[in-house]
Sequence to fold (774 residues):
Amino acid sequence: MTEVAIVGIGCTGFRPITPDLSYKELMFEAATRAYQDAGNINPRKDVDAFVTCAEDYWEGHSIFDEFVPDQIGAALRHLFTVPSDGLIGLATAYMLIKTGEFNTVVVEAHSKISDVTTFTGIVNFGLDPIFNRPLGGHPYYMAGLEMTRFLRESGNTREQCAQVVVKNRKNALSNSYAAHGANIAKEQVLESEPYFDPLNRLDISQPCDGGIVIVLASETAAKKLTDRPVWIRGIGWISDTSWPESREWGRAVYAELAADMAYKTAGIRNPQKEINFAEIDDSFSYKELQHLEALKLCRQGEAGKLTEEGETEIDGSLPVNASGGLLGMGYAIEASGLHRALETALQLRGEAGEHQIPNVKAGVAQSWRGVPTATGAVAVLSVEVK
Amino acid sequence: MFGKKRVAVVGAGLTLFRRYMKETGREMCYEASKMALDQAGLELKDIESVAYGSAPDAFDGMHMKGENMTDASGAWRKPFSRVYVGGGTGVFTADAGWWHVASGQFDTCLVVAEEKMSPCCPHPAQAFTTIFDPIMDRPHGTTLIWIFALEMHRYMHVHGIKKEQIALVSVKNKRNALDHPCAQLGAKITVDDVLNSEIMCWPVQRLDISPTSDGAAAVVLASEDVAKKITDNPVWIDGVGWCIDSTYWTNRDLYYPDYVECAARMAYKMAGIKNPPKEIDVAEPYDPFDYKELHHMEGLLLCRKGEAPKLTAEGVTQRDGNLPINPSGGLLGVGNPIAAAGLMKVCEIFWQLRGEAGKRQVPGDPRTGVAQAWGDLMQYGSVIVMRR
Fold:
């Protein structure tokens, strides 16, 4: 069975607003760059399938699939929509290539969230209409509740969460793709306005616009298209229960199980040893710590301490979100996961620029679909094919 | 020729299709999944992955609708992925199930498609007003029936087809549906009934159109090794295909669905089918409107362009004809809960190839069948080829 490689990466960069560009133009730009990067392929001939990741309500269209093909070169070609996170789109493309019927598959995800004037309302529409929606309020209260439970169960502290924000926003300053780089102090996070107790304003990632296209290829095709393939060694995705009342609020079970699945395929027995760095979901500050532990990159309750000691900085022993993560780069709705994969691939190619981590061979990218879901994905990427 | 792993359908389940179901979408998912698992003799613990399909979230008023259906579709703490290609979703969800297993990632996949259109008030058609381009199309107050009327007109004009010829499809499918236990609109009607029914948007009349419905369907897929252990008569998925045409439907000639042909060619190539009319014994093309059955027979290369009305008039597409088309009763007869209706067609081919279709069984021991759905802005084709 063939191995699967990332052979092309295209990205618009991310900005809080993009009034000069439509979503179609963002997608076109990312696609053009990705096709160029993948050995200047022609999407009209050289791509066997296209996967796009989009949710109708974010787009303001029913059946958003209709509006995708032309700008990425997929008219009268084999395109479809996965209404989910970009990393689950990547998993879909991975499976297509593994069947042996597809040599080159393109994955697209984007955010034009600045067009959305009813963000809270849309998130609310994700809640069960009988049991949860009538409770009212901004649905991010669920993140506040989860943070409380997580801190209590794991022993990590509020201050350690604030340190995540400081680190990621600082990292973003050296990333030209990032929208929200800043030099801030821990006190500023702790003293920013309380939003969803114990989450303050600065603990929450801010939205951004942008487009990403990634080209995947089978082993044979990859050899022809690039001399710097990044291999997808394993990928996993899991949905925990859709009922918030039935979840284990202290743990990110979806990330634990998705990591187990990805590590198993990748043959990774000791993630702490075999993984050099991580690009993980930090849509809320505590999520970075929770996900770090779920991915078994440190022991339970240890993520905060590692952060405090600087081990998760770019020059630490386990760099986490060297790109700036969602806190620094921005929350790009369904593109957030693909965003993590893109940064992981750039690091492995040695093309991350100012925030490059030296000598990395294997990294992990992880996503969460956000409130109110318990769905996430994990991908293990490596410069080595096996 | 095939994926690394051959994939079998080993069980299928279907709820009633009705204008208003008392059951919630979740309950319908459960019912169809349970039925499919029971037929396969499997339990939820045997299922390694779930592929789910549903059309616009606007029907339910749910954002990220797939996320709300995970538990009901048996995906608790499992890999769950939703695919979404408008009206093409139903058949495409089975295509998605295929790659879950053919990739070697999973030995089993539960494929669930569900649609609950009735919560959309005053009429589900309202949800479709938001599928159009907000600048070019929406200001006209465009509706689905408008654009399909344009397409139907163009198809009739290019080939010189009469309404009487097209109405025969509605007559056939509604009669076929009388034998389907889940059907919403099985009926004995005549061509005159169709021609005298209320005009919706010329040339589309009320009896040319399938109803809006609630319903769910499910199939269980298994790898060759697993399938051989649990059943003596698996039905193999030998080809999958899909294709999307340009968004700009006003710039295309609507008389022929190129995208369906492109999807069909992809599936036929995978299945090694060179002469579709000869090699395919039974077909379930998408028939939300009567003219679409004809349109799609041509797109599926089951006959030449413009020839489908003639075959229909000659009785070739009847259940006992040489090329039975929509023996289930199709969307016109069984009903049209969008994604579930597409997967219903996959279920029907499965039952037909196993000889389990009861009163609907087509004679002649069919060995190869094809199901197809259509979606987006007259733009999407999804196809599956199955063999016994």
Observations:
- Chain B has one domain: 7-121+211-387.
